[in-house]
UniProtKB/TrEMBL annotation, chains A, B:
Residues 11-166 form the S-Me-THD N-terminal domain. Gene3D superfamilies: CV3147-like (2.40.390.10), CV3147-like domain (3.40.1610.10). InterPro entries: S-Me-THD-like_C, S-Me-THD_C_sf, S-Me-THD_N, S-Me-THD_N_sf. This is DUF917 domain-containing protein.
Amino acid sequence: MDKVRKIEDSDLDAVEIGAAILGTGGGGNPYIGKWRCRQELRKGNKIDVIPLDELPDDALVVSLGGIGAPVVGVEKIERGDECLRALRAIEQELDCKVDALISSEIGGANAMEPMLTAAQAGIPVVDGDGMGRAFPEMQMCTWSIYGHKSTPAAMADEKDNVVVIRNTRDEVWVETIARATVVSMGAAAAIAMAPMRGEFVKKAAVPNTITQALSLGQAVLDAQARNLDPIATVLKQETGKLLMTGKIVDLERHLKGGFARGHIHLEGFGNNQGERGEIAIQNEFLVFWRDGEMEVCVPDLIVVLDADTGLPITTEVLRYGQRIAVLALPCHDLLRTPRALEVIGPAAFGYPELSFTPLDRAELGGA
Amino acid sequence: MDKVRKIEDSDLDAVEIGAAILGTGGGGNPYIGKWRCRQELRKGNKIDVIPLDELPDDALVVSLGGIGAPVVGVEKIERGDECLRALRAIEQELDCKVDALISSEIGGANAMEPMLTAAQAGIPVVDGDGMGRAFPEMQMCTWSIYGHKSTPAAMADEKDNVVVIRNTRDEVWVETIARATVVSMGAAAAIAMAPMRGEFVKKAAVPNTITQALSLGQAVLDAQARNLDPIATVLKQETGKLLMTGKIVDLERHLKGGFARGHIHLEGFGNNQGERGEIAIQNEFLVFWRDGEMEVCVPDLIVVLDADTGLPITTEVLRYGQRIAVLALPCHDLLRTPRALEVIGPAAFGYPELSFTPLDRAELGGA
C-alpha cells in the first residue's frame, strides 16, 4: 500500500477544476463537496487514494455518488452525511463492512463525494470511476455495462429517508426506480450501489481518473498563474481538439423528468467566423454539430469552457451571449466497445441516426 | 386457536361484495383477488382467519396490500405472488419469520390480498384491518395514526423489482416515497409494512372487518336470492342511512399524481325529486353535499350502489347517466378520535372549511 496517494488540502482546488472539465457540463457542481473534503482534512481525517492495481482481488468496493438534477444540488445543499448513510445502509443490507469506495462518475460533484465519504468512514477511495466523465443515467456506469448488477443500491437524503433497491429486473429498472425515488426526495440524494469485488473493479473501472482530474486541474491552475492560455493547456493535457469558439445566440433548456434537457446555438468568432454550432444537452453535452453536420458525439467528451478564463461552464449556468470555447476530448477505450456503445452511444440518447466516430488520438497527437 | 374461522370457497363471493361496499368507491376491484384465493383453496391451501383476541401479544404481524391507482389494477393484472414476495422481502429485512398478516384496508382489493398471501405462505390472517374501509394514502392506516412506524416497508412488482423503504422522517414520507416508487413501477405493486406485535395490533386494528365484509356480502346475496331490496339490506346490516337516489348528470374525473380525483353531480329522483347532490372523489368518495350543503364526509363511509341491482359502483366505473343510490355508513370509533381526524378528517383531504359531524348510530337505529 505504499503507492497510496494522500489527497492534501492544496490538491482540492485542482481536483475541483479537473472534475468540472471532465463533467462535460453535467455531474453537478463539485464546489461544495470540495469544501466538505477540506473540512474533513482539517479535522485530521485522511483521503487515501489507492491505485487500481493495489486493490486486493477480494476487497469489497461500493460505487458511490449523488443522484438528482444538478441545478437542484446548487440550491438544496446537502447535510453532508448523505453518502455515508447510504454506505451504512448498504453495509447493513450486506451484513458486512465495505473495504473501499469508488466514484460512480469522476465528472462533477461525484468526484468529491467518495473522497468525502472515504475521509468520514476511514476507508480508501479507488483511483478510477465508472464513467471517466459524467453521464445522466446510472446504467451508463461501466460496472453496469460490463455485467455487474447495481443492486442492492441504497439511497439516503437529508431528511433521514433511506430506501434500498434490493432487486430489479434489469439495470435500466435501477435507474427508473432510483430516479422516481430521488424526485420524490426533492431531486437530490446519495446512492451507494453495485457492491463489487476488487477483481471486477480492476477490469471494469476507468483507471486513474482521480489522478487525471488532479493533473488536469493543476495544469489549468499553473497556466493561469503563468498567464498562459488555459484552453491550450486543457487541449494539450487531454490530447483534445478545439471545435469552435463562439457566442451563445440561442438557448433552449428545460427540466424534464428530473433532467436538464435542451440545445445551445452558437455563432462562431475568431477562426470560426461565419460558422454556426449547435450542442444538444441532457445534463451533459451530448452532440456537437457544425453548420448542421454532426462532428462529435457521446461517449467522447464535449467540454465547454469560458472563452476568456478557460474555466468550465456547466449546463445549468449557460446563458445567452456567453462567449465559449467548445472542446472535444477522446473518451477511454472502455467506453468505445460495441457493448458500451449500446448503452452510451448516440442512439441511447435519442439520436439513432447518428453513428459514433471516435476522435482519433493519434491524429490529435496523443498515444 | 379453536376460534379460527376457515374461509371457504363459498364464502368468497360474499367477501367480495362486502369488501367492495366497504371500499366506498375505491380500494381497487376485489374480483381478481377472489379468483386467486379460490385457486389457492382448490389447491388445498387454507385461509385461516383468527380473531384479534386470539392473537398472541408477541406475534409478529405485517400489514399487507396493493398500492397504486385502482383503474390501473383492472388492466395491469398481477402475477399473483407480488404480496408474497413483499412479505419475504420484509422477512429478509427483519431476519425473522412473520406470524400473521393483516389487511391494510378491508375496502376493495386489499381485503383479498392478505387472504391470498396467507394461503400461499401458510400463516393466518387477522380478522381486522387498518382502515375499516378504504382510504387513498398509507399514513391513513390506524397503525400509523396510533403511533406505529410503517418502516421498514417492502414493495414488490410483477417485474421482480423489490424496494425496501428502510427509514423515513415521518409517516407521510413513507407515502410520498412509496407513491413515487409505485408510479415508476407502472402504478400497481404490493407493499408489506409496519411490522407490529400482536399487543399493538389488538389496540390499533379496526376489529372483525373480514367477518363484517363476509356478513354484509352474505346479506346482499340472500336479499338478491329472495328478491328483497338489497339497498335496504345494506342499510340494515350496517345501520346506515340512504342519502339520495339520483342520476349522474355531470362527472369530472381525472388521474392526478396517481390518484383518481373528481366530482359527481346528481339530480335526485323518487323521494329526492328536485334535489341536487354532489360527491367529491379521491379514489374513494370523500364528501356528500345536498343542494350545496355538506351532509356527510370522511371518515364516515359514503357508498354508491347501483339503484336497481344494489351492487357497489367504484369510482373508476362511474359514468354519465348512471342511476345510483348514495348511502352513508358510520365509521368505526377508532377513526373518530381527534388524533384520527387530523389524518383522515376532511381537512386532510383539502377541505379545511368542513367539520366532521359523526353520523349518529343511535339515531340510525344502531347500538
